[in-house]
UniProtKB/TrEMBL annotation:
Keywords on record: Membrane, Transmembrane, Transmembrane helix
InterPro entries according to UniProt: DUF2523
Record protein name field: DUF2523 domain-containing protein
Lineage: Bacteria, Pseudomonadati, Pseudomonadota, Betaproteobacteria, Burkholderiales
Spans traversing the lipid bilayer: 6-34, 73-91
Domain of life: Bacteria
Length: 101
């Protein structure tokens, strides 16, 4: 009996806040998604530029670079850069401010 009276009271108190909160969360997620996709496109373009700069090198230097795993090192650096940007975006204060307003 008590639970039947408690649920409508809680719902009545949360209903006005819920619409605003859901809207703000969706807005923040949308902005985060667009920002991440933009940074992903920029990072991919930079990675393609770095790869294309190696095209004119002689084969002996290319084989030395392959032996030293330079391609894997460059890929690791770009992966770490993307991971750092993702973590900074996810824990950034702008996202928190948008949700908490």
């Amino acid at each position: 009996m008590f639970l039947a009276e408690l649920i409508p009271a809680i719902w009545g108190a949360l209903a006005p806040v819920l619409g605003s909160l859901v809207g703000r969360v969706l807005l923040a997620l949308g902005i985060s998604f667009v920002t991440y996709q933009g940074l992903s496109v920029g990072t991919d373009a930079l990675y393609a530029s770095v790869q294309s700069s190696f095209n004119g090198l002689p084969s002996s230097i290319m084989s030395l670079m392959a032996y030293l795993w330079v391609d894997k090192a460059i890929s690791t650096v770009f992966s770490a850069f993307t991971a750092a940007l993702t973590i900074k975006l996810a824990s950034g204060t702008s996202l928190t401010k948008m949700i908490m307003k």
